[in-house]
Amino acid sequence: MIKEIKLPDLGEGIDGAEVSEVKVSVGDVITADKTILVLESDKASMEIPSEVNGKVNSIFVEVGNEIKTGQKLISVELDDKSEKTAVVPEFKNEKEESKKDDDKTDSISPEEPLLNDSFSYNDNKHGFASPGVRRLSRELNINLNIIKGTGAKGRITKDDLNNYIKLQMAMSSGDIGYQEPEVDFSQWGKVEAQKLTKINKITGKRLQHAWQSIPHVTQFDKADITALNEYRKKLNKNNAKKKIKVTFLPFLMKAATIVLKEMPKFNSSLDQNGENLIIKKYFNLGVAVDTPNGLVVPVVKDVDKKSIIELSKELGDLSQRARDKKLKPHELQSGTFTISSLGGVGGTFFTPIINPPEVAILGISQSWWENIYSEKIKNNSPKYIMPFSLSYDHRVIDGVAGASFTSKFSEVLEDISNFSDK
Fold first, then answer.
1. Has residue 25 got a pLDDT over 60?
2. Is 394 marked active-site?
3. Would 188 be classed as within a structural domain?
């Protein structure tokens, strides 16, 4: 005997709804009260149960159909067991259902929605959710199969959808928030809490944003600065009475400006929309200075127009005032390229993080003496080798340009005629 199951009266003056999910297939053996369809209206979501036991013979509706009270849903070939009439499903108010779901949902970080590990774009099933959630997901073109529901029976709640939307927004902006779990470290031994300085906090946020939003690539290289080292010692000897100390940094700055003039993309910034490259015709170099309160980057303006001695004087003044917290706002602005030097500390190579809105940064590590074979003299000779790292924005600069920059920079440093003060 074949039994046709029709859409019952939904109550509250609702005479129809949309089919959001078909839970059975032809040939399925079902029992009374088994859910066969999931419907949604503007006010609620509801499951339609079978009224009988038997095998599904035909299905008359499909996902997306608008159906009305009394319309045929499926036909069932009855088994020998007595028919059982199911209770007409209760119409669920969306606000009440959402509240129930919320009560049963564990606390989830706004940036950490539960995602469906078994998700497949070929899956024809639809996530179980309220009409409001489904409507919003359709408007935003979000596949609910991606989201793992935290509500009753795996229902996708409004919070689940909102958390997923927030995650996508954070990912697109490169600002993915993460809340570190609270850990009581004192349970394993003595601890001391040291409050971060304001500079630490500001620098940390800027670096985090830069690392997340800029596709960094780092090129490593070395330069023979043997001749440059001797020239620097000579300058220091000649300026000893003036109490001017010449470090390697002024030479690095001058060398950088020489290469920047040849390769102007490294002295640029992307505009706000990321559609235009702003090439700067001035050369203001930021120099990272380590202070008791954290990292500060004062800017030396018009480096290309200043001598090694002039740069040495200015660097000494800026560095001291940075440590004394006496820098003026304009002395921290207008940078076009940054140099971070760890030469006096140690290490071989490192990956410096770009200082936005600049597109490149140079990292200098500690130099060493090395016996290097010279093809010219057919013998080994000691050379003073400086390792350095160039990080650049891969949206603006490709690998060939990056390698070219480091090669040119090395060549400039090895030719001391580039630094003769006139």
1. yes
2. yes
3. no
